[in-house]
Amino acid sequence: MKKTVIMMLMAIAPAWAMAQENIEADIQADVVSKNLWRGQDLGGVSIKPRAEVRWKGIYLNAAGATGFDAATKEYIDVNVGYRAPFGLNFGVGTHWQSGFDTLNRFLHFKSKETGHHFEANLGYTNKYFSLQAYTTFGGNDFKGVNGDRAYSTYVELAVPFRLAGIDWQAVAGVTPMESNGWYEAFDSGDPRNNQIYQYYYADGFACVQAALRATKSINVANFEVPLFVEFNTNPYSKKAAFVAGFTLKPFQKNCCKKGCKQ
To answer: What is the DSSP letter of 253?
Structure first.
């Protein structure tokens, strides 16, 4: 019996070691002067962490945003999917955002109270562009308080290019139809008109994000720290913001200097 167990362990160990060698993982955190997400203004200065594990094209990632004041909304994304070698990707995930549930409970899934928006993603990426589409199929996604499911959809095109020694990215995001909505109270000074109807994206086909980002890496103690600035607009809401930030990503040493070791 002992010999059988030992032989099984000896057979499993190489396969387990090979599997571990094929697993890749990344972690990083962005620090931004303004928290923007798909054209939505979620508040001020924020930390946006991200972690991902990959194995043979299969990925599991989580991302989020936490602000420095109570007025800044928070969100948590969790996604699982597959990226094919030729650029196609697909997956499912949840986007949880504070404010939809008055108690801001992450582990609360009642459809018209939860902060979760469950969505499917389909996209294609190559060296010239990335095109991604996201459609909500579950969670708090309804037209009005007692309306039908909205299937809120967001489509984004990102085009990277390099100019004057700086990495640039132009982004355009649209929604093809009316997204979910809700009544939001505010102090208008008139008790007869103290609420307004808000849309997750827009009330119909609209461009909800048009942005241009410039990124330049700087060297800090042999680490590359990407510094970026972004001019971000939402043509639908007629709002704009000029954002600055930087990315912290461990174990990315700049080895251009003589004598630097991995």
So the answer is: B
